Amino acid sequence: MNWTRLAAVSRKEMLQIRRDARSMYLAFILPLVLLMLFGYAITFDIRDISIAVLDRSHSAASRELVESFESSGYFTVVRYLDRLAQADAILTEGRARLVLVIPPDFTAALAAPGPATVQALLDGSDANTATIAMNYAEAIVAGFSARVTLVGGTLPLPVDAATRIWYNETLESRNMIVPGLIAVIMSIIAAMLTALTIAREWERGTMEQLAATPVHRLEIILGKLVPYVAIGLFDVAVAVVVGLVVFGVPLRGSVLLLGVMTTMFLLGALGLGIFISAAMKSQVLATQVAMLATFLPALLLSGFIFAIEPMPWILRAISRIVPARYYVTVTKGIFLKGVGIEVLAVDGLAMVIFAALGVALAIRVFHKEIA
What we know:
Blueprint: H1 3-19, H2 21-41, E1 49-55, H3 60-71, E2 75-80, H4 85-92, E3 98-102, H5 106-111, E4 119-122, H6 127-147, E5 149-150, E6 153-154, H7 173-194, H8 197-204, H9 207-211, H10 217-245, H11 255-280, H12 283-300, H13 313-319, H14 323-337, H15 341-365
């Protein structure tokens, strides 16, 4: 290892990045664009769910129940129906997601010993929205039930559940999405950036110049990695600032620990990109392979959007070789929980192994010799 030669390779790579508009865009513009775009576009918070009401009771109690839905902030009454046959049409046409049906004996049923029943008809074509709307509706009806006054007092509840949400007290989906989004974006950008490096040397004919120098392939690989690690750390720093300032995501853990874990993750992702670049020797093909090797696994098997535990065992097993899975756990743990290395040690070790493997594969497959 000659540090002078390594520094010369790094300086050469930095000059190539500055002169390559595509690399500059990938390095500094695309990560921020993706973070802003996905940060606002991906959300699990569902509000202003349109509902229609069929109130057959026309009583003070039924109006109070409807007002409970409207004042919750989750539902918006778009229409009052006259008959049940209208419910099918309004759900079919998509003008309402839920139809609340209040029976004519609603007030009498409230005064009776048994439960009073109301019906919620949901549009299940969007299963996620329907499930969330159903949960909201059940919670509102449960809250209404707790306030119902009977003759002689208030309806006694056998169990009073006192719930407290930790780590994401407001249940804002952005707090969960933005830290995971940083991991997914950087896994894609890092691999795509370095996927251009070796292939660019072959396509521009500069590999012959490298082959004529005494620079060892280890020095070439590490020299090319250094600028991209610096760029990756800069991108993550910008993403963290955007997450804090624009999206209001809390950062409760150690910034230093996040930096160390990020460096390990970037080394692995960048090494994978150089491995692909050296194997493909074509910028177009290397970019496509890098996208397939990082985007789909990072999006689907990292736990960013879809929980890993309910997946079939074969997919759970495959997810263990997806580095973004461990980095998503790290970012969420540091951002939201404020945990330290004692909790993240296993994930950190996995990323160290991935980093060593990525760099080793890149060195192994790269050859200076001109065939």
